[in-house]
Amino acid sequence: MPLSLWLSLAAVCAMGAMSPGPSLAMVLRHTLGGGRTPGVIASVSHALGVGLYALLTVWGLGAVITHQPLLFTLITWGGAAYLAWLGVKALRAGRGGALEARAVVTNHAQAARDGVLVALANPKLILFFVALLSQFVSADMGWNAKALIVATATLIDGAWYVLVAVALSHSAVLPWLQARAHWINRVTGVLLIGVALQVVLG
């Protein structure tokens, strides 16, 4: 995979992870309620759920490319439209109510369970990956490139939420995030619309 293409993938994955939502709220709750370790455990387990979705998406897209090229073209264009819709929605979002997380009494097992379940129980996540990865998977792509895509999505998601958990465990990062949630939404929206336009323009 060319470096420029990978950088685009990494940027969109990063914006997707940083965007305020139920995943961020879950990590915040466990960090505020149990400290650094539960927050990190929740972050890592969430990343594993994201990695599973990314793996299944790459597998499925590979099969569609091989056997149904027209269907893959429709998925690609539909994915571009979905990314654009997400971008517009992010631009219109407010300051991110998901950041108003309350602490809960938690332990390591609960943090691990919630991390995976929030990832796997979110139907928007699989739609996001189908929309996103359809822009990066090609018919001649080898398994090494597909593994790189899955690893990129997994590691970026895990790294961001671990960073949030570690930072929140000893500083006043939450008010900083709350104050800038609208900017996070705006940057995310612009990036998603940019990816959609790139597909439309060929």
Can you characterise this structure?
One of its GO terms (cellular component) is plasma membrane. One of its GO terms (molecular function) is amino acid transmembrane transporter activity. This is Threonine/homoserine/homoserine lactone efflux protein. Residues 1-25 form the signal peptide. With 202 residues, the chain is mostly helical. The protein has one domain (3-200). The protein contains 8 helices and no strands. Helix 1 (3-18) packs across helix 8 (173-200), helix 3 (36-67) packs across helix 6 (123-133) and helix 3 packs antiparallel against helix 7. The longest helix is centred in the N-terminal third of the chain and has 32 residues, at 36-67. The radius of gyration is 17 Å and the shape is globular.
Summary, kept brief:
With 202 residues, the protein is mainly α. The protein has 8 helices and no strands.
Question: Which short descriptors sum up this protein?
Answer:
membrane, about 80% helix, amino acid transmembrane transporter activity, Threonine/homoserine/homoserine lactone efflux protein
